[in-house]
Amino acid sequence: MKRTVFSIVAGVVAAVGLLFWGVGHAHRSSERRMAWIAKRLNLDEQQKLKLEAVHEAMRQAREQFHQERAELFGEVAAQLQSEQLDQAKLLQLLEQRQAMMSQVAPQVIATVAELHASLTPEQKAKAVEHLEHFKDRMGHHDHHSHH
User: Fold this and answer.
1) Phi and psi of 29, rounded to 5°?
2) Is the pTM of this model over 0.70?
3) For residue 47, what are the contacts with CB-CB under 8 A and spacing of at least 6?
4) Among 47, 6, 20, which residue's Cα sits nearest to residue 130?
């Protein structure tokens, strides 16, 4: 049961992340990304504040992961260069990363839930439409990168 809940949480975070970072290719700054989302979903002022809260929660999570990711890559590189791969050490690193995700996810999910609760059915439909469009573009891009 716990794993299912985690999968759902991870899926929601990924979907919101796609909405935020998906438009990042066309719009470099976070302010422009948020303005783009607000315009596409026709958000009112209250909804824009909730969107900013989601952005801030995700920014903080990203900062936490950035430092941890650098350490993880360093350790993986050291393991690859070693004579014997320390599977237990690599598993421990992965478990630490999952623990950090479990720590950060509730805050991000709570802010996403507040924004979600304020959206009209039309806004939710538009959000899904943009996610589908981005997913299709990413799928198309991934398909070509494997050739």
Assistant:
1) -80, 150
2) no
3) 38, 41, 115, 118, 119, 123
4) 20
| Token pair belonging to 13 | 């975070």
Residue entry with tokens 């809260």: 53
In this structure, what DSSP letter does residue 146 have?
A: T
Q: 């070693």: which residue's tokens?
A: 82
The two three-digit tokens of residue 67, written as one number: 């430092």
The answer to whether 75 and 89 have CB atoms below 8 angstroms apart is: yes
User: Which one-letter DSSP state was computed for residue 26?
Assistant: T
Angle between helix axes 45-81 and 2-22 (nearest 10 degrees) is: 110
Taking only the tens place, the pLDDT of each residue in 17-46 is 655 554 444 445 778 888 888 998 999 999
